[in-house]
Structure to design on (227 residues):
């Protein structure tokens, strides 16, 4: 069972470069999320989506963009990477109607911005 | 607004000792409560969840948690810790129909041999 798959798992960027993180889920989940995890800060929600074609801002959206063109995919983009965006990024998904808040996580993508 | 507090940033225990990780939440109605575990270099995995009914819930890997409404707590316990339990533990609260769970900042468990 694949579950939630993130690519790439590791990436090093130079300041100002752009990149896209891809999240794919095969559970037919309606909701998808992007979090970042930094030491001592726990998980912080960047953006989320409650269905195909919809996106919304989370707690720390600045510097990121997202798209949900297909139900199974949720893309996180960095247009001009900054060292402050060095972090571990996690994608998660959850059920739609009747959702209880239980999330299914990918294994993470570690991004370093030099 | 809902919130979750994990008062302990780090907990150190000896292998074979018992464990209790604290979680306090703030929510206006009956919450849905979760504990997740994150092993080094891995994503988060659900340990257990509470929706309703019996306030003592059993999870994977021998963990259990007790919901105490009067104390707004959902503490995680294990009677005998194994070295492989060393990880980061996150408590989270959700709500029926809601889709943005709130996470605590996590507790790092260190296990001494």
């Amino acid at each position: 069972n694949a579950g939630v798959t993130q690519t790439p798992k590791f990436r090093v960027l130079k300041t100002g470069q752009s990149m896209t993180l891809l999240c794919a889920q095969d559970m037919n989940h309606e909701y998808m999320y992007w979090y970042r995890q930094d030491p001592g800060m726990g998980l912080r929600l960047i953006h989320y989506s409650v269905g195909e074609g919809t996106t919304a801002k989370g707690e720390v959206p600045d510097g990121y963009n997202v798209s949900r063109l297909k139900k199974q995919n949720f893309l996180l983009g960095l247009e001009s990477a900054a060292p402050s965006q060095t972090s571990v990024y996690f994608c998660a998904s959850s059920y739609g109607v009747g959702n209880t808040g239980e999330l299914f996580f990918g294994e993470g993508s570690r991004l370093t911005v030099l | 607004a809902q919130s979750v507090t994990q008062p302990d940033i780090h907990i150190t225990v000896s292998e074979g000792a018992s464990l209790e990780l604290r979680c306090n939440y703030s929510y206006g109605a009956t919450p849905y409560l979760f504990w997740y575990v994150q092993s080094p270099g891995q994503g988060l995995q659900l340990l257990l969840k509470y929706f309703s009914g019996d306030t003592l819930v059993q999870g994977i890997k021998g963990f259990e948690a007790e919901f105490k409404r009067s104390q707004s707590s959902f503490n995680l316990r294990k009677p005998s810790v194994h070295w492989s339990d060393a990880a980061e533990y996150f408590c989270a609260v959700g709500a029926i129909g809601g889709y943005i769970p709130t996470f605590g900042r996590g507790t790092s468990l260190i296990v001494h041999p």
In short: Chain B has a mean pLDDT of 92. The two ends of chain B are 41 Å apart (CA to CA).
